[in-house]
Amino acid sequence: MTTRADILRQLGRDAEVWDVLVIGGGATGLGAAVEAASRGYRTLLVERSDFAKGTSSRSTKLVHGGVRYLEQLNLTLVTDALRERGHMLRNAPHLVHDQQFVVPAYSYASLPYYGFGLKVYELLSGKLSFGRSEILSAKSTLEKLPGLKGDGLCGGILYHDGQFDDARYAVSLLRTFQDLGGTAINYVEAVGFLQRNGKTIGIKARDREEDASFDLQAKVVINACGVFAEDTVSMDRGEHASMLAVSQGTHFVLPHSLLPGTTALMIPKTADGRVLFAIPWHGSTIVGTTDVPVERASNEPRALAAEKEFLFDHIARYFGRRPRADEILSVWSGLRPLVKKAGVKTSQLSRDHTILVSPTGLITITGGKWTTYRRMGQDTIDRACQVASLPKAPSRTLELKIHGWTTESGAASSEWEHVYGSDLPELQALSSENVALDALLHPRLPFRAREVVWSARNEMARTVEDVLARRTRALFLDARAAMEAAPAVASLLTAELNRTEAWKARDLAGFLQLANGYLSDSLE
Ligand SMILES: Cc1cc2nc3c(=O)[nH]c(=O)nc-3n(C[C@H](O)[C@H](O)[C@H](O)COP(=O)(O)OP(=O)(O)OC[C@H]3O[C@@H](n4cnc5c(N)ncnc54)[C@H](O)[C@@H]3O)c2cc1C
Fold first, then answer.
1. Is the Cα torsion angle 251, 45, 206, 501 positive or negative in sign?
2. How far does residue 223's CA lie from ligand 1's centre (Å)?
3. Is the shortest distance between the CB of 46 and ligand 1 below 6 Å?
4. Is 206 in the pocket of ligand 1 (CB under 6 A)?
5. pLDDT class for 69, splitting at 50, 70, 90?
6. What pLDDT does 242 receive?
7. Disulfide check for 200: which of 237, 293, 360, 408 has CB 3.0–4.6 Å away?
8. Is the pLDDT of residue 305 over 80?
9. Computed over its alpha carbons, how large is the radius of gyration of the chain?
10. End-to-end distance of the chain based on CA atoms, in angstroms?
11. Which of 56, 186, 331 to mutate to test the pocket of ligand 1 (most atoms within 8 A of CB)?
């Protein structure tokens, strides 16, 4: 097994120039890295925090074309995303599944309007359709969405889209990249660029665990830093015109009893003209999202009391009651990196991606959606090949199976265990070898001690937060339970990573402080 120390030793020793160096380990960076490695380029990815620490673990968990963009008549974005949706299901059936949605109609005029739109949505997906849309009676709508307000309900429209576990998909992309021979390391930050004759030829890197600095050379460097992409451009070429608008989206996690059953609710028009969802996910209900412009990007964006009011007002309108404070299991916010356009509100800005090549040759990829990560990676590496004159190699990611690919769910005893795909028997074997690892981390959570050990050994988890936020999804599902499980996780990690008691105390305290921000009483 290659350890983090082995990778660092290799990076320190290795004078050979990388073909492609990717900065940023979210959906965009991992997608570009997989694309590069699958074409045979020697590829390195550095992430300054943990993989998917940023926006890529904080999405609405939809693999979708975007019904909203259809209404904006952005047919290219919708069609491209629907195609990617179909390939994500084929290439990662352990991580992506079909999800039924119902749009309730409280006027007879809205039934044909949304019915027609969602039929077009279905038809645009062609052979990769997830299922037929249909118009439902009021009675069937209430059967699909028990708890929905029945007064004035005229019917509903059922349609299909994809759902996934975003952080688990990121971890599986990381493993796919490694399977392809790529090198990735978390907690290593790009702090500057190496330049020769006005061209970028690598980065100055800092290992944040050991506080050590080193240089890494590459034929081409890709900036996939999400909402931080502009900071990276500034390090490369100093002053430049501002290009990104950052907008915050918040989700609340509520008990499954709010929306019992398996169908999700889609509210087609909020007070600010967007769509809003209540979706079953890993045994709970996610409600979101908002669109609030923010001045400065941060690693841990905090939900605002106003966002809660906005979301709960809409829930009350459709369910006839506001969720109680004690029903809020977790609250999290993510930041969208949107490409600016003068005079256009963030909610109206395009979700298309943009690739920019600096005069130094640095390639910046930004915007886009989780669903389009593969296409973004393909376009980026096509561009990188031109910039660095890499030997031509065709893309093969459209059909590339993601690590863990399997269509069998035989060994999985819970919905959660599906995410491990073909790795599941190996993971389960850990608790056959040591029965203590079979223990649940918390009575309200589906995660076991063996997942902690597995994530440290196989998925580059380094901290309690890595395990509870992104290898398992405890923090996102039930923040209080995650905090209660944290001491046990800290002990398991300390043993597994050969850490000191001082490290354990520090890491645990850091996690508990961060997790406070996911409790509803932390709203600003
Ligand atoms: C609220 C919300 C809901 C969404 N819902 C959906 C959805 O349902 N479906 C969908 O398809 N899309 C959705 N999206 C969009 C999608 O989540 C994003 O487009 C995607 O996650 C962006 O990924 P990224 O890799 O560009 O950014 P990030 O995930 O933020 O990754 C950037 C990474 O770069 C790292 N980094 C920054 N600077 C440095 C440096 N100097 N050195 C090393 N590393 C660095 C950061 O630590 C970070 O991990 C949603 C977005 C939001 C905000």
1. positive
2. 12
3. yes
4. no
5. confident
6. 79
7. 360
8. yes
9. 23
10. 44
11. 56
Token pair for 96? 């992506």
- Asked if residue 109 lies in contact with residue 93, where contact means CB atoms within 8 angstroms, the answer is no
List the alpha helices (DSSP H) in 323-459.
373-388, 424-433, 449-458
- Residue 490: closest CA among 476, 475, 474, 506: 506
- Between the CA of 253 and the centroid of ligand 1 the distance, in Å, is 20
> What does pLDDT average to over the chain?
93
The pLDDT tens digits for 189-201 are: 999 999 999 999 9
Percent above pLDDT 90 for the chain: 85
Is the shortest distance between the CB of 54 and ligand 1 below 6 Å? yes
Pocket of ligand 1 contains residue 39 by CB under 6 Å: no
Sign of dihedral through CA atoms 66, 68, 69, 75? positive
Cβ(28) to ligand 1 under 6 A? Answer: yes
Burial of residue 512 (number of CB atoms within 10 Å: 0-12, 13-18, 19+): middle
For the Cβ of 336 lying below 6 angstroms from any atom of ligand 1, the answer is: yes
Cβ(228) – ligand 1 distance below 6 Å: yes
Per-residue pLDDT, 281:
95
Q: Where are the alpha helices (DSSP H) in 255-340?
A: 305-319
Place of tokens 């050990």: 453
Q: What are phi and psi of 97, to 5 degrees?
A: -140, 165
433 CA to middle of ligand 1, Å? 38
Torsion angle defined by CA atoms of residues 141, 142, 147 and 150, in that order, rounded to the nearest 10 degrees: 100
Beta strands in 412-499 (DSSP E): none
Go through the chain and tell me how many residues it has. 524
Alpha-carbon span 119 to 115, nearest angstrom: 6
**What pLDDT is stored for residue 190 in this prediction?**
98
CA 311 – CA 302 distance, rounded (Å):
15
User: 444 vs 76, which has greater pLDDT?
Assistant: 444
487 C-alpha vs ligand 1 centroid, how far in Å?
Answer: 29
Assess whether pLDDT exceeds 90 at residue 14: no
Cα(27) to centroid of ligand 1, in Å? 6
Q: Which pLDDT band holds residue 72 (cuts at 50, 70, 90)? A: confident
Omega before 406 within 30 of 0, i.e. cis: no
Task: Report whether residue 250 contacts ligand 1, using a CB cutoff of 6 Å.
Answer: no
